[in-house]
Amino acid sequence: MSISACEQSEPFALQILDDSMAPEFSTGHIVIIEPAGLCRTGCFILVEYQQCFYIRQLVNDDTPPYHCHALNQQVDDFYIDSLQAIRGVVSQRAGIRRRMHKHYY
Hints:
By secondary structure, the chain is mostly beta strands. The chain has one helix at 5-8, and strands at 12-15, 30-34, 44-49, 52-58, 66-69, 78-80, 86-94, 102-103. The chain has a single domain (5-103), classed as Umud Fragment, subunit A (Ribbon), CATH 2.10.109.
């Protein structure tokens, strides 16, 4: 069964499982990922790195290597060589209370 281009660009939800992006995204938050979202400096991205997926903040989008920043200072940042490793952009965050909901871009 093949996946159409339309299905590949459908938004999907992920639950945050760690505190690497705290305080912006805490354990248990739900984030909505837009695979076709506009990726630019400062946005939060879903990135594939060393065969795992991470939510990180893109620090630079002009020249490689691209800096993927973890907001938690106890977690190491990493760099990617290509924007092809970015699988989507975080467009929304939902928590257990309405005041925790937030929209990005």
